[in-house]
Specification:
By secondary structure, this protein is an alpha+beta fold. Helices cover 52% and strands 17% of the residues.
Length: 149
C-alpha cells in the first residue's frame, strides 16, 4: 500500500523535476569532492617526494663523522703523528654535522671534546645559551672523572 503511494507521488512531473535537480546537485557535489581529493593526493605525494629528495640530497651533501674522520681531525688539530697518535678517539657521543661530541683518551685520561663543522676541535668547556656547562653534563652522563685536566 505504501509503495503505491510513493510510485504515485513520483509520477508527478513536479516531483520528478525536483528529484532530478536534487540528484544532479548531489552528484555534482560528489564529483567536486572527489576532484578535490584527487588533486590533494597528487599534491601531497608530489610534496612528499620532493621532501624525500631534499632529505636525500642533504644527507648526501652533509658529511657524517666516523671514528676514522674524528681521529683524523683530532690528530691534525693536536699535530700528532697520524700513524701513531697519542690521543685516541674512544667514542662519538653525538654525531651532528654542526657540533659533534666525542670522548678522547690521552695517557689513560678521558676527556670530552667537541668537533665543530667537521673541522674545528677543542677540549674546553662549552656553555649553552642558558649558561649550562654542556661539557660537565656529558661527563656526568658518561661517568668520566674530571680529574686535573
Amino acid at each position: 500500500m505504501k509503495i503505491r503511494v510513493i510510485i504515485k507521488r513520483l509520477s508527478n512531473p513536479r516531483v520528478r523535476r525536483r528529484l532530478k535537480i536534487g540528484l544532479s546537485v548531489f552528484g555534482g557535489a560528489i564529483l567536486i569532492v572527489l576532484t578535490f581529493k584527487i588533486v590533494y593526493d597528487i599534491g601531497y605525494f608530489d610534496a612528499q617526494s620532493l621532501e624525500n629528495a631534499k632529505n636525500a640530497e642533504q644527507s648526501a651533501t652533509q658529511p657524517v663523522l666516523t671514528m676514522e674522520s674524528a681521529q683524523f681531525i683530532v690528530t691534525g688539530a693536536l699535530k700528532e703523528d697520524p700513524t701513531n697518535p697519542k690521543t685516541i678517539v674512544e667514542q662519538i657521543v653525538d654525531n651532528n654535522h654542526k657540533l659533534a661530541v666525542i670522548v678522547i683518551e690521552n695517557n689513560k685520561v678521558k676527556k670530552v671534546a667537541w668537533i665543530i663543522d667537521m673541522h674545528l676541535f677543542f677540549t674546553g668547556d662549552l656553555f649553552n645559551d642558558a649558561g649550562y656547562n654542556l661539557t660537565v653534563g656529558i661527563e656526568q652522563q658518561l661517568n668520566i672523572n674530571r680529574g686535573d685536566h
